[in-house]
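Work Package 4 report. The design task specified in the project plan requires that, given a folded chain encoded as structure tokens, an amino acid be chosen for each position. We show below one input record used in the internal validation round.
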């Protein structure tokens, strides 16, 4: 098993954010950009984490405690090297939420347990691009929607960039 430290850049933004960014880029409205980016900054962080590989499975762990305000909160991504566009993401904030992103089976039943009670969600993968390798790092982008009881509840686009730390 190999484990090494890596630099991570992680962002997660609601889909409406991306459409507003595109509109601002098209018309160059600085006041609108200030309003969009004001106090409502989407989740973004640069941190260090670890990437590991065992039996063809790659796992990336980052600590997002300061981002969500909960001690020991982590985001864990895992996937098989031979199938990088099927990714499991676990967020440990206030319990566990498990998301499955897959380019073949786009609607995945998933679960969240936020401490009060567990509930099910459906994660709908719109698009996934995963070029992360254990050896070189790389980038993963996932565009997805969440449904609760068949009703659209949220939509996000997340990006994870993994860079080896030079020794």
């Amino acid at each position: 098993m190999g484990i090494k430290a890596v630099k991570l850049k992680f962002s997660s933004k609601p889909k409406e954010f991306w459409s507003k960014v595109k509109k601002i880029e098209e018309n160059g409205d600085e006041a609108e950009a200030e309003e969009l980016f004001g106090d409502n900054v989407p989740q973004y962080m640069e941190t260090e984490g670890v990437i590991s590989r065992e039996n063809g499975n790659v796992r990336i762990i980052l600590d997002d405690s300061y981002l969500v305000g909960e001690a020991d909160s982590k985001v864990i991504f895992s996937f098989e090297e031979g199938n990088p566009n099927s990714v499991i993401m676990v967020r440990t904030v206030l319990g566990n939420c498990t998301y499955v992103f897959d380019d073949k089976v786009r609607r995945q039943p998933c679960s969240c347990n936020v401490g009060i009670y567990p509930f099910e969600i459906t994660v709908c993968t719109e698009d996934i691009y995963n070029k992360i390798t254990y050896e070189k790092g790389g980038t993963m982008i996932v565009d997805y929607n969440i449904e609760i009881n068949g009703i659209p509840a949220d939509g996000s686009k997340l990006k994870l960039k993994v860079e080896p730390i030079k020794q």
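The mean pLDDT is 78. Validation will be extended to a larger panel in the next phase.
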